[in-house]
Structures are given as C-alpha cells and as structure tokens.
Amino acid sequence: MKSKQIWRKARVISMAEPAADVRMLTFAVDGLQSAFDPGSHTNIKVMINGAPAIRTYTVIPSAPGTLSIAVKLHPNSRGGSAAIWRMQPGDETEMTEPENRFELSWRASHYLLIAGGIGVTPIYGMAEALAARGQSLRMVYGAKNRSLMAFAEPLQALLGDRLQCFSQDEGQHLDLEAEFSALPPDAEAYICGPLGLLEAARDIWRRSGRPMSRLRYEVFGDNGRFAEQEFEVEVAGYGRSITVRADQTMLDALTDAGVPMIFDCRRGECGLCAVSIVSATGEVDHRDVFFSQGERKENPRICACVSRLCGGTLVVDTGYRREQAA
Q1: Which among 139, 154, 160, 195 is least surrounded, fewest beta carbons within 10 Å?
Q2: What is the CATH topology of the domain spanning 111-219?
Q3: What does the CA dihedral 52, 57, 60, 66 come to, rounded to 10 degrees?
Q4: What does the pLDDT read at residue 293?
Q5: C-beta of residue 304 within 8 angstroms of C-beta of residue 263
Q6: Helix (H, G, I), strand (E, B) or coil at 246
Q7: Whole-structure pTM over 0.90, yes or no?
Q8: How buried is 83 (Cβ within 10 angstroms: 0-12 exposed, 13-18 middle, 19+ buried)?
Q9: How far apart, in whole angstroms, are the C-alpha atoms of residue 14 and residue 89?
Q10: 3 state DSSP class of 220
C-alpha cells in the first residue's frame, strides 16, 4: 500500500552548493502548477549501479514551475546522494508532485524550529513561511561546523536574532531542555535532524508534560550506526532467502521478490512496514523513529523501509503465507 503519486518529467536547470557537502539542484518540471507547502517532499528517479531507483527528498523554496532539492553527499548512503551529485544541467528525469506529511499547523502562538545538519531542508521553508506571515518564531540550527550549515546566510538575513547557530567544533551545543522550558504553553516545536537529536527531543518534551501532538519531527535517511552492507532475509512461509543489496532497502528487496508488504512513509515514521524478527545472525541497525528505545533494544520488530542487518541473515515473519496467497 502506498500513496498516490503523480509523476512528471523534470530537467536540471541550475546547480549550487549551499554548504561544503551539500548540492542544490533546481529542476524545471513539466505541468507543475500548484504551489507546495513547506515541509513537502518529492520522489525522484535515479540510476544506481545501472539500475533504476527512487529516492525521496524535501523540496525547498523555488520559483513557480520548478522544484529544488538540497542533497548531502553521504559516504555510507545507498547511492542516492551520489546519483544526485552526478547530475548536470540539462539532465532529464522524473519527479512526483510534492506531498506533505510534515505540515505546519498554523495554530500555535509561537514556533520553535530545530535543524540538525541537512535536516535544515524542511525547516528552511517553514522559517520563510512563518516569517512571511509575521508569526512568532525562533530557529536553532546545529552542525559539526559552520561550513556545513546549508542556507545559514539567507536564514540569518531573514530571521536576524531569531536564529541561533551552534557549531560542535567550536564547543557549542544545543540545550533542548532550556529551549523547551522557555516556550509558552501553546507553542509548537518542529524538528528535523539525526536520530539521536529526535530521540532526545521526544524524551525531554515528554518529561516536560507538554502534549506530544505539539512536537512535530521528520527523520532523514543517514541515521545508521553502521555502513550499508549486503545481508540475507528469510521470510517465514515464503521458502527462500532474499538478498538485500547494500544500495537497497529491505522493503524494496521484499516487494521486488513478490512478498506482499504494507507500507507508506518509507522514512521509518509510520510503522506500517514493520515486521516481526524471528532471528538474526548479525546486529540489527534500527533507523526508525516509530519504535521507542526500549522496543528497539528488545528487538521484536523491524521497520523494513529504513532499518537493516549488519551482515548475516535476518529471519522475519510478515504474516505472509504462500498457501494463503494462492
């Protein structure tokens, strides 16, 4: 199961590098007329190791009829970022019309925006939209060093002293507890960044007694503890072993092999693709934000869209039975 996608032809028309390891591509998209809200994402078709693949990226503010994405080059990625970095002006592909599952509510008296590294991509558009409407906001932005802070200059020009940046190399660290305690009761926080940042934010927000519905977050794909490795997955009732390549998700490998799967977000947030773990000969690398830390430690289930096994063989039970399918 997946959401409806409208694919359109797209062509690279410009390139820029807003940070040392980030490349921004702008595409002219055929027939794209409707505007998109901040926090939206698009799917793009790329070639990885000679095979077609689909990757998902946040869209950032751009001119009408165009879509822009900003992609960090990840050394341990499944090949998507490298494929995007190889694109040049004039190259053609296909992209979906933007969808939004990380929406601003427009109901709060004050908004706290938190970005970690390349997690700035949805936050950038939110900051622009909130500032344009005169909303009360503050943005905090952290990265390893300032050269890795994409869009820091336009954000500084837009927000002034409402933006505070933190560089780890300069010994600066974001104090989430202080940030949350300073918020009015009906404020909302929107956060995108590494898994550790999101988990810390959820824990502190929950301990503060604030409604969890007022903490909104989005995860990005570079959240693994280990580099991608090939592994085998066996499905109870299926009768054979399926290889999950290093540049492939377990969800894609299973669906390509004909195993019925339920899925939606493909970002480890909704939990629809979670399957039961029967056994594992390698270490499970949980990369989702759906399960709690305790659930990931106990290891009963795994989100097939993002999480992996660090080599070896994983046996799962999806509920699939060949005789039932027949």
Answers
A1: 160
A2: Rossmann fold (3.40.50)
A3: 20
A4: 78
A5: yes
A6: coil
A7: no
A8: buried
A9: 6
A10: coil
